[in-house]
Specification:
Elements (H helix, E strand, L loop, with lengths): L1 E13 L4 E14 L5 E14 L2 E16 L4 E14 L11 E16 L2 E14 L5 E13 L4
Length: 152
């Protein structure tokens, strides 16, 4: 098991409005390996920024992953990620949504025949939700990748 925690305060720049701001970040990550074949990871982080007019935004990222090693040649990885941004429209000079949420998932199977020959099968998707849009899938991808090194 591993655990890491971080926190920081800083002077930053609100690039959207071209002004100075004060930021605060924190995050925590835990990784568990209950056996030789399974590994879980969880993390959460938050970033906040304030400007002279008040609170500007709060952004949160949640991340979960699982890796399962069937053999030393075959493994599976799954990732789920959520990204939330709460913004204060009163402190922006342009129109912004108060709430933005991004959801994503990624799944991958990998098989290694030898160090030069690999097969990947995967899927990923991402979704978006804001003040004007209900949760909507923005992209969905299936892929296969074959890698082979020609040797004379």
């Amino acid at each position: 098991m591993s655990l890491s925690v971080n926190a920081a305060e800083y002077r930053g720049i609100d690039y959207m409005n071209g002004q100075d701001g004060d930021g605060k970040d924190w995050g925590a990550t835990v990784t568990l390996r209950p056996g030789k074949r399974l590994q879980w990871g969880l993390s959460a982080s938050e970033s906040r920024m304030s400007v002279p007019e008040g609170w500007l935004y709060t952004a949160r990222i949640y991340y979960a992953s699982v890796n399962y090693f069937f053999t030393n040649r075959l493994f599976f990885r799954g990732i789920l990620q959520r990204y939330d941004v709460d913004q204060n429209p009163e402190t922006y000079r342009t129109t912004v949504s108060r709430i933005n949420q991004h959801l994503g998932s990624q799944f991958l199977f990998s098989y290694r025949v030898n160090p030069f020959t690999l097969v990947y099968l995967g899927y990923s998707d991402s979704g978006l939700q804001d003040d004007r849009t209900d949760l909507t899938t923005m992209s969905r991808t299936f892929f296969v990748k074959l890698s082979y090194a020609w040797r004379p």
